[in-house]
Specification:
This protein is of the alpha/beta class and about 325 residues long. The chain has a domain of about 190 residues: Vaccinia Virus protein VP39 (Rossmann fold). It is built from 10 helices and 11 strands. The strands form 3 sheets. A 7-stranded mixed β-sheet has the order 7-6-5-8-9-11-10, with helices on both faces. It has a two-stranded antiparallel sheet with strand order 1-4. Strands 2-3 form a two-stranded antiparallel sheet. The longest helix is centred in the first third of the chain and has 16 residues. The N and C termini lie close together (about 10 Å).
């Protein structure tokens, strides 16, 4: 049965840029994190102000922090990913989930729909499975996660199987066609409340490497010709031909064929200069409703672009029986 929850009021000490329901306001509580995951201990150190922190330029430290955050905040007791796969910053991923929750609430009388009747599709679930883990923990939603990488799918399935609380909540599907996004994943008769996606940001391997070098240099204060990525990422997770503009363009074009099976299609869009062309393409595609929702991810400003081929009445009806 679909359950509704009114959005919480904004807490007084919310960190600028983070969603008011984001659990990661303020500094990390390392006492709680260490209690939930003692494996974090070797990576914790003091900053010049005497406060506990980790080296965010160190991949193993970032992975250990993520494991502790998932255990302490979301009840995920078992989580791991192989070296080289994307290890995403959790606060930003949580913001996307909460932003989608607010989007759905707009079609449900201002109340967030909760429970297993709400099903989402995560395009590019990755080995980390972060969006389904957070979405299920926060709102009880079910997820289908897709990916073109078979190893990523196996890793995500391992995480799900290792956590009994996720039984029946998350299923993973391999996208067999490199250029397809929804085709082959959304099956006949299935209905989704939303899809979400963090598309490849860069347009080439060289651009991805340059961006990683800048990021690691900013975190460590040191320049490196061959940076070790603190958040990792396989090639398809970091770049594709044409970058995010091309990827989102393909997503939009394909979404028209599943217009009656998904209430809201959404994606992150990092580059504001890509927004005008996307707005035009959405209009040409016949999207009935388009929303651009501002979102902060740490020091970076981003946005969620959401579109629907259903009018308000149709969205309300679809969300009342999603599943």
């Amino acid at each position: 049965m679909l359950k509704l929850q009114k959005p919480n009021q904004k807490p007084q000490a919310a960190k600028p840029g983070l969603h008011p329901r984001n659990r990661h306001q303020g500094r990390y509580d390392f006492v709680a994190l260490l209690a939930a995951s003692p494996e974090l201990a070797p990576f914790v150190k003091s900053n010049p102000a005497g406060e506990s922190t980790i080296d965010f330029a160190e991949p193993l430290a970032v992975k250990a922090l993520n494991r502790a955050l998932l255990a302490a905040q979301y009840g995920i007791a078992h989580w791991d990913i192989p070296d080289g796969f994307l290890c995403p910053p959790i606060p930003g991923r949580a913001d996307y989930i909460h932003t989608v929750a607010d989007l759905l609430a707009g079609d449900c009388g201002g109340e967030i729909p909760r429970g297993a009747a709400v099903r989402g599709l995560d395009i590019g679930v990755g080995a980390n499975c972060i969006y389904p883990l957070i979405g299920h923990a926060e709102y009880g939603w079910r997820f289908v996660g897709s990916d073109i990488d078979a190893q990523a799918i196996r890793c995500a399935e391992t995480i799900v199987a290792a956590n009994p609380s996720l039984a029946g909540a998350v299923s993973c599907r391999l996208q067999a066609a490199d250029t397809a996004i929804f085709a082959g994943i959304i099956r006949r008769g299935e209905q989704y409340a939303f899809s979400l996606c963090n598309p490849p940001f860069h347009a080439s391997a060289a651009e991805a490497t340059a961006g990683s070098r800048r990021k690691v240099g900013n975190l460590s204060g040191k320049k490196s010709a061959k940076p070790v990525l603190n958040f990792g990422g396989r090639s398809h997770e970091l770049w594709c031909e044409g970058g995010e503009a091309a990827f989102v363009g393909r997503m939009l074009a394909e979404s028209r064929h599943f217009a009656t099976q998904c209430v809201w299609f959404t994606t992150l869009l990092s580059k504001s200069e890509n927004l005008p062309d996307l707005r035009y393409a959405l209009k040409q595609a016949g999207a009935v409703e388009v929303r651009v929702l501002a979102m902060g991810q740490g020091q970076k400003l981003s946005r969620v672009v959401a579109w629907s081929f259903m009018d308000s009445a149709a969205r309300q009806l679809a969300l009342s029986k999603t599943g």
